[in-house]
Design goal:
Helix content: 25-40%
Order of helices and strands: EEEHEEEHHHEHEHEEHH
Number of strands: 10
Radius of gyration: 18 Å
Structural class: alpha/beta
Strand content: 15-25%
Shape: globular
Distance between the termini: 47 Å
Strand order of the largest sheet: 6-7-8-3-9-10
Largest sheet: 6 strands, mixed
Length: 258
């Protein structure tokens, strides 16, 4: 089976500063892979390269065996901010996403496709609500439904829950895991929260602070929904945290403040 995403000899550079050098990494189809690491280590940059939003300084990235330049139709992106058109309804934003993708559907088909994606994420009741009247969590659910509506094979999620309150984050973590289980999507999820990475992912790729290296590639062999008080969760959490030598990095990744 072809890997969903493959990074070969990837080099990421900002000016004279090299952030990632000679990275090799493969993402298996059907995996929920979390990119975990402190701010500035290149996690979001790697997603932008996959999505053809940024050119790497060197190396090769393929999506389902294709170069990123031709694989865009296989992808969908969920950003930290929902990026909705505020005066459009929730379903109108999803339909707009289909239109901008150039997916050839008539009006009735677009509406049906959009409603199906809203049902998948549990927000069909919000279909006619203007986007500006939705809460932050509801807006992000619409953004996820918009991504699902284009029926991608790979879903890229760039810290999608980091701007939300704690309770909403917990709910959305459970919901996105359910979506993954029910659809078989390949998901790459960027986070700098150790708990979140273990809760949602079945694989956690751990990056160091700059200069960035791949510290570990951990399988999450725990039943979901995960019991955060379980011995298995605690053991994996401690293993990941102990990979970081910097107190500042550990504080950021665990949410601790001094």
């Amino acid at each position: 089976m072809t890997d969903a995403v493959t990074f070969t000899d990837l080099r990421v550079q900002y000016g004279a500063s090299t952030v990632i050098d000679d990275l090799d990494l493969s993402i298996r189809q059907g995996d929920f892979t979390c990119f975990l690491g402190p701010s500035g280590c290149g996690k979001s940059t790697m997603l932008r390269i996959v999505g053809e939003l940024l050119e790497p300084a060197g190396g090769e990235v393929t999506v389902l065996g294709e170069p990123t330049s031709t694989a865009w139709s296989q992808l969908a992106y969920v950003f930290q901010a929902p990026r909705l058109v505020p005066w459009r309804s929730a379903i109108g934003n999803i339909e707009l996403g289909l239109q901008l993708r150039g997916i050839r559907l008539n009006r009735k088909q677009r509406r049906l496709r959009a409603m199906e994606s809203m049902e998948t994420i549990g927000i069909a009741h919000l279909a006619d609500r203007p986007a500006h009247q939705l809460s932050g969590g509801e807006q992000q659910r619409v953004a996820i439904a918009r991504a699902l509506a284009v029926r991608p094979k790979v879903l890229l999620m760039d810290e999608p829950f980091s701007a939300l309150d704690v309770q909403t984050r917990r709910q959305l973590r459970q919901e996105i895991v359910s979506v993954w289980k029910n659809t078989g999507l390949t998901i790459i999820f960027v986070t700098h929260d150790v708990d979140e990475a273990i809760i949602v992912g079945n694989r956690v790729v751990v990056f160091s602070p700059k200069p960035t290296v791949l510290l570990a590639d951990k399988s999450v062999d725990l039943p979901k929904p995960i019991d955060v008080s379980s011995a298995g969760f605690t053991r994996l959490h401690e293993e990941i945290v102990h990979l970081f030598g910097s107190t500042e990095a550990i504080d950021e990744l665990t949410g601790r403040t001094t």
